[in-house]
Amino acid sequence: MWQLVFLTLGCDLVLAAAYTNFRRGMDSVGKRQYQVQQGSCSYTFLLPETDNCRSSSSYAASAVQRDSPLDYDDSVQRLQVLENIMENNTQWLMKVLNQTTRLELQLLEHSLSTSKLEKQILDQTSEINKLQDKNSFLEKKVLDMEDKHIVQLQSIKEEKDQLQVLVSKQNSIIEELEKQLVTATVNSSVLQKQQHDLMETVHNLLTMISSNAAKNSFGAKEEAVVFRDCAEAFKSGRSASGVYALLFPNSTEEVKAYCDMETAGGGWTVIQRREDGSVDFQRTWNEYKVGFGNPSGEHWLGNEFVFQVTNQQPYVLKIHLQDWEGNEAYSLYEHFSLSSEEFNYRIHLQGLTGTAGKISSISQPGTDFSTKDADNDKCICKCSQMLTGGWWFDACGPSNLNGMYYPQRQNTNKFSGIKWYYWKGSGYSLKATTMMIRPADF
């Protein structure tokens, strides 16, 4: 049987299978349409009418009967070939149907995926809109905060300007007060010097009056006894502590000194004493050279006398210290002497013992003496001006017994005060000090 088949897909795909070798024969045969619906696709088949097929068969049979046996066999073979071709085409159509079905499923899945994607896009768009709204709110809030901060900064700047003006005024007032304080300090120092000079003059007058009265009462004239040092006075029978006249070695010049005839066996010549702050120790080089103050109170005996005495024979130095809490300590040097003025009255010490520290608070080896007008220390600063007083400063070292006198409860954290580092530290200002010497063989 010869037939012509056309396949039409509802998804706009048209497939046709024809046997081109018999197209002309089929044109004269009647055809009938058969339509099959498969999902969204429809299939249309065009097949020959049955009667025509029968007539054709009869005609073919009669023709076969009329033809020779060879023609008949050839027709049978051709028919067999056509049937094979029809079978192949049928299988091919089944494959096309299967592929079409899979394609529809893929299209359906793709449509579903597209719907999901569209939904996700819509959801994300909604989230983006929400985030944009939130961002707009935050931007507005940030702008409001910036405006507030600008106002606050402006207010702070105005307060800063006002404080700067106030600080400038206070600095001017402080500078003026400092000038007044310096003037008052100078005036106080002058007054203190005048007061002590007057007291010394009165003391000398009283001594002279007492001496003259004694001489008049006995009706005799006698010369005052002068000693080389207090040890000599002690050995001569003078056992009472007090002011004695001492003679410069190899000279007729005298100096008044206080002799301690009680401490550790007596015979001590006092070369320095601090006890009440009544004497200003911020003095010149020459004043420290010749001495100042009242021998019975606060005073400095004089570097020149101490130099000459300590170079005649070996001397010991004892430094007695007292704090504001009632404690006492001392440092004893077994060998003590001063160099001449040419060598800036350099101090030499050896053999330390005592209770005021195991280390000497006077720098060793020997250091030069410095005053406010003679800077001989080893510091680029001027220790005597910074710490006040004349002393063997080295590099503004650990001691200064001639510093500023500070009263009780004002004596801590005072680096310009009367200090002995290895007993009370650098910021503690002592209540009282005494420096005294006597021969090493006493």
Automatic annotation (TrEMBL):
InterPro entries: ANG-1/2/4 (IPR057439), FIB_ANG-like (IPR037579), Fibrinogen-like_C (IPR036056), Fibrinogen_a/b/g_C_1 (IPR014716), Fibrinogen_a/b/g_C_dom (IPR002181), Fibrinogen_CS (IPR020837)
One Pfam match: Fibrinogen_C
SMART domains (alphabetical): FBG (SM00186)
Gene3D superfamilies for the chain: Gamma Fibrinogen, chain A, domain 1, Gamma-fibrinogen Carboxyl Terminal Fragment, domain 2
GO biological process, one term: cell differentiation
Record domain Fibrinogen C-terminal: where: 221-441
Main location class: secreted
Coiled coil: 114-194
Secretion signal, residue range per the UniProt entry: 1-18
Keywords: Angiogenesis, Coiled coil, Developmental protein, Differentiation, Disulfide bond, Glycoprotein, Secreted, Signal
GO CC list: extracellular region
Subcellular location: Secreted
Oligomer and partners: Interacts with TEK/TIE2, competing for the same binding site as ANGPT1. Interacts with ITGA5. Interacts with SVEP1/polydom. Interacts with THBD; this interaction significantly inhibits the generation of activated PC and TAFIa/CPB2 by the thrombin/thrombomodulin complex.
Role noted for this protein: Binds to TEK/TIE2, competing for the ANGPT1 binding site, and modulating ANGPT1 signaling. Can induce tyrosine phosphorylation of TEK/TIE2 in the absence of ANGPT1. In the absence of angiogenic inducers, such as VEGF, ANGPT2-mediated loosening of cell-matrix contacts may induce endothelial cell apoptosis with consequent vascular regression. In concert with VEGF, it may facilitate endothelial cell migration and proliferation, thus serving as a permissive angiogenic signal. Involved in the regulation of lymphangiogenesis.
Protein name: Angiopoietin-2
Gene of this entry: ANGPT2
